[in-house]
Amino acid sequence: SSFTWTASKITGSTHTGLLPALSSDITVKDGQIVGGQITLDMKNFTVTDLQGGTAKKFLGHIKSDDFFNVAKFPTSRIEVQSIDKGVATGRLQIMNKTKPVTFPIAKAGNVYSGTLTFDRTDFGIRYGSGKFFKGLGDKVISDEVSVQFTFALKSNTTPAQTN
Length: 163
Known about the structure:
Elements: E1 2-8, E2 14-18, E3 21-29, E4 32-41, H1 52-62, E5 75-84, E6 87-94, E7 97-108, E8 111-119, E9 144-152
């Protein structure tokens, strides 16, 4: 499984990193996902475009209560309730707040991939948001965060689980 996050400033500069999956429980019927959830490890997510002290400082801030408060909320969860014509419907839980989501999802054999995009302010993450703070200029952080994912289902597991 692979979960890669991307976030940016309004200036266009971006940061990316990896979100490890802790567990999953995916239900498959007649070869199609009919529900399930994936729990993500917020304490151990990384940044891949920064190195050394800069990466450590960035991660310290993004994991603080200014953003994801991972000490208090160490996991997040993506729940899929249905998939219809390449669109997944479900719920995203971040910091104990749950919001409905829809996102494109593609299937190739037993591998699923797509991108889930969400508004971080819907989960109470307001730091650097132009919606809530004026006069930030080029320091405004985009409210949209994207998570690109790819996961494979084990063919011999009932219910099927991701690798």
